[in-house]
What we know:
This protein is α+β, with helices and mostly antiparallel strands.
Amino acid sequence: MTQTNRSIRVQVSREGKISLPAAQRRAAGIAPGAEVIVEQVGQELRIKSVAALLEELAARAALLVAGTDDSVDQFIADRRAAAARDEYPA
């Protein structure tokens, strides 16, 4: 994914709502009606798609288990092997 930093100016309504232009929503992977994550960092508000947040979390998790045998796939393989040896009831 190519990262583009682009600032836009929008107006906040009396109800506290903002409208995001379609081009920026598409670029961020935010479909109409989708839920987003709003993160406050100091006085900044950052809006992310849920998919972007999940990608970020997956990348962080991968760094934590890099170079180890600790992974979901390894856990599942271990559990299947234990079940095959009848160590755990099915």
